[in-house]
Design brief:
This protein is globular. It is of the alpha/beta class. Helices cover about 45% and strands about 10% of the residues. It has a six-stranded parallel β-sheet, with helices on one face. It has ten helices and six strands; from the N terminus they run βαααααβαβαβαβαβα. It binds 1,6-di-O-phosphono-beta-D-glucopyranose and magnesium ion (MG). 1,6-di-O-phosphono-beta-D-glucopyranose binds next to helix 3.
Length: about 220
């Protein structure tokens, strides 16, 4: 039986993926190349450092350590200029309904995100205080698909990994949940997230009865 829920942030609770894409793309363009939305899929759920490494490979560029750090800081500054404008309206459709259900039924839930900006974003959308635990890019040493982020989250919720449900929009994140032996629910395309136990296009497709069944079975 399932006793708690772990949410990814970008692409699950909010669509900050679009801001990441804009900011990374500007960085690439400033460096004299471009990449596609399809390539951008590979950046989802992946840490800031690993994302920049991938992008530089695509542009066949190498940067010095100092320049690498500078570019990462510039990207984050640019990204945060989008985050600054966020409010509750950015919570993706259907998400609030599930969160309300969990709160009402005393089911613990945590955040399991690769982002170092997670707390900042949750504050902007007024959800920071609602989570029983938050594990983000500042708390982990191993990036998804490593299960670390979700294992720490389950531990903080005081539940076993096999009793945890994970909502994820990225391939790396679904793999991380599977590696942690948790129930993985993909949010996005079946084609991309086929490894997940269940896949839904978005939260409006998820019935509360479906969640209820998992949590009371
Ligand atoms: P930051 P998630 C991930 O968040 C994003 O999907 C990924 O695109 C981003 O590079 C990563 O966070 C790091 O974010 O630069 O804000 O630390 O999907 O795990 O919530
Ligand atoms: Mg994500």
């Amino acid at each position: 039986t399932y006793k708690g829920v772990i949410f990814d942030l970008d692409g699950v609770i909010v669509d900050t993926a679009k801001f990441h894409f804009l900011a990374w793309r500007k960085l690439a363009n400033d460096l004299g190349f471009d990449f596609t939305e399809e390539q951008n899929e590979q950046l989802k759920g992946v840490s800031r450092v690993e994302s920049l490494k991938k992008i530089l490979e695509w542009g066949e560029l190498e940067l010095s350590k100092t320049e690498f750090k500078r570019q990462m800081a510039l990207k984050n500054e640019n990204y945060l200029s989008y985050v600054a404008k966020m409010d509750e309206d950015e919570i993706l459709p259907g998400v609030q309904k599930v969160i309300n259900y969990l709160i009402k039924n005393n089911i613990p839930f945590a955040l399991g995100s690769a982002s170092k900006n997670a707390r900042n974003i949750l504050k902007k959308i007024n959800l920071l205080e609602k989570f029983d635990a938050i594990v983000d890019g500042n708390d982990v040493s191993k990036a998804k698909p490593d299960p670390e982020v979700f294992l720490i989250a389950a531990e903080k919720l005081n539940i076993k990994p096999e009793n945890s449900i994970v909502f994820e929009d990225s391939v790396a994140g679904v793999q991380a949940a599977n590696n942690a032996k948790m129930m993985s629910i993909g949010i996005g395309g079946q084609k991309t997230l086929g490894e997940a136990n269940y896949v839904f296009t978005d939260f409006t497709e998820i019935d509360i009865e479906f969640i209820e069944k998992l949590l009371t079975k």
